[in-house]
Structures are given as C-alpha cells and as structure tokens.
Amino acid sequence: MIVIPLSILQVLVGDLWIREGLTNDEIRGGVEVVDGSVAAGAFAGLVVAITSILMWTVLTGAITRAAAGTFLGRDLEIGESYRYGFARFWSIVWVGLLSALAIAVAEGRRSAGPGTWSAGPAGTCSGRSSSPGCSPAS
User: Fold this and answer.
1) What DSSP character marks residue 36?
2) 3-state DSSP call for residue 67?
3) What are phi and psi of 128, to 5 degrees?
4) Which uninterrupted H or E stretch holds 25?
5) Is residue 121 part of a domain?
6) Rounded Cα gap, residues 54 and 93, in angstroms
7) Which of 6-20, 74-88, 103-117 has the highest mean pLDDT?
8) Predicted confidence (pLDDT) per residue in 42-52, tens digit
9) I need a surface site. Which of 6, 9, 30, 98 has the fewest CB within 10 A?
10) Is residue 13 part of a domain?
11) What is the mean pLDDT of the chain?
12) Residue 24, in any domain of the structure
C-alpha cells in the first residue's frame, strides 16, 4: 500500500535532481555547458538507496507483525504493524546481514569441494592415511 507511492516518489525525485535540481547551465563562447550532473546523480542515487533500505526493512517488519497477528486471530492494524517495523529496524537489518553471511559461507563451502577446508598446511599430513602424498601411520 505504501511501497508503490514511495517507489514512484523515489524515481521522480531522483529524475528531478539528476535533470534539473543540482545542475548549473552556463553559456561559454556560444556553447551551453552543464556542471554538476555527476554529483547530482550520485547524490540522488544515495538518497534512493537509503530510502529503499529504510522502506523495505520497515515493510519486512510490518508484514511479519501483520502475518503473525492474523495467524493468531488478532485484528490487523496497519499503524501498529508499521510501528513494530520501525521499533525492530536494527534487529531486522542484523537478521538480513547474518542470513546473507550464512548463505555466502554455505555457498563457498559447497563450491570449494569436500575436504578442502580440512587439509593442513602444504606439505603436511593431517592424520588421514588416504591423503595424497601421506604414508599410512605406522
């Protein structure tokens, strides 16, 4: 309900800042020179990124609260759901970061292959007799 208008507002504000708001137009020697468009684009991109992170994090908390309340048979209040999302903002951010880290580690472990992380330093045997270059323990 609130995501679509905020997304449209982000696009409009970013477009306004990039095209009109933070540029200086001058005529030098009969040629129009525009300054500041790179800085305006970077600033608009930063504003859009911060607004998007805030919006989606709060929305995640609000949807979680609304789903839990509906499951438990409670009446759904939109304002209470958004207050919950704002109150748990940093908790939701940390859960997202830790989930991404866990997925990255699991994917790295999966793509590295079996036994890659359990091997010792080069030229040493880790106690496994089946390791290449290691003789069985006597």
Assistant:
1) S
2) helix
3) -90, 125
4) strand 24-28
5) no
6) 10
7) 74-88
8) 777 788 788 88
9) 30
10) yes
11) 74
12) yes
Dump pLDDT digits (tens) for 62-88: 988 989 998 999 888 888 888 898 899
Write the DSSP symbol of residue 18: I
Domain residue limits at 15: 3-100
Residue written as token pair 């759904």: 76
SS3 34: strand
CA–CA dist 25, 35 (Å, integer): 7
| Identity of the residue numbered 52 | S
**25 found inside a domain:** yes
Q: What are phi and psi of 44, to 5 degrees?
A: -65, -40
Q: What is the DSSP letter of 1?
A: -
* Coil, strand or helix at 131: coil
Q: At which residue do the structure tokens 């995640």 appear?
A: 60
Q: Phi and psi of 26, rounded to 5°? A: -135, 155
CA distance 54 to 48: 10
pTM beyond 0.85 = no
When divided into structural domains, the chain yields a total of 1
Question: What's the chain's length in residues?
Answer: 138
Tokens of 63: 């949807």
Which contacts (CB < 8 Å, 24+ apart) does range 48-51 have?
48/10, 48/13, 48/14, 51/6, 51/10
